[in-house]
Amino acid sequence: MKTSLKFFKDLGVCDGAYAALSDVFEQAGVEFFDYDAGYQVMLGMEDELRERASASGEDGHTEVAGWFEWCFELRNRADAIMFFNDHIEKNEFKTDDGLVHLTREEAEAHIELAINEVIAGYRNNFAINGIEVTEAGETLHVLTDLETASWATFDKFTWSEMRGGMRYETTSPTEALAHHAYQSEYFNELEKLKVSQKKNNIKRLIADSSDTYEVWV
């Protein structure tokens, strides 16, 4: 991974460490420094850096261990790996469930399938029942087509709340239909969730230009 003084400054290095880095770059006579080589140089300067950190007087930056930790974590930061736009984009895509896919299209198809299974499960388990009450007892009809259902045929309606399982009963077809509309809106939310997850919940694996350090973005 390539580094430069601008690289360190833009990524938020503290002033004391930046001054030390400036000296290293100047003494080496280079504009760019390999990250791994530079980290080894820092390790070899630990005593000097400890003194410089202690003398810096910056809140939270007077311990050299913090300087080393900050530099070490650069290898796990996407903004560091991508800073010079020379990173490698790999054909590995991860969804929120931790599964890795070989193409973005494969990852999107996985999200589509997973949410469609949820939708199908709810649809299979949610229905309004129309009940006819006669002298012989109650006859239950599962109303799968609410547009053509003859609401006046039934004396009451029952259903189970789709997500919580609570049981409902009413003699009002208007109330039953209103609840169905409310429940059906959840399907629209799940469709929107598919779009959102495809856009925002797929991460791609990238590596620095040397293909040494990787991060999901």
What report would you give on this structure?
The chain has eight helices and ten strands. The protein is an alpha+beta fold. Among the domains are: 75 residues, no CATH class; 73 residues, no CATH class. α2 runs antiparallel to α4 and α7 runs antiparallel to α8. The radius of gyration is 31 Å and the shape is elongated. The model has no long low-confidence stretch (mean pLDDT 89).
Write the layout of secondary structure elements.
Elements: E1 2-3, H1 5-10, H2 15-28, E2 33-34, H3 35-44, H4 46-56, H5 64-73, H6 78-81, E3 88-94, E4 100-101, H7 104-125, E5 128-134, E6 137-143, E7 156-160, E8 167-170, H8 173-200, E9 203-207, E10 214-216
Antiparallel strand pairs: 1-2, 3-4, 3-9, 5-6, 5-7, 7-8, 9-10
Helix pairs in contact: 2-4, 7-8
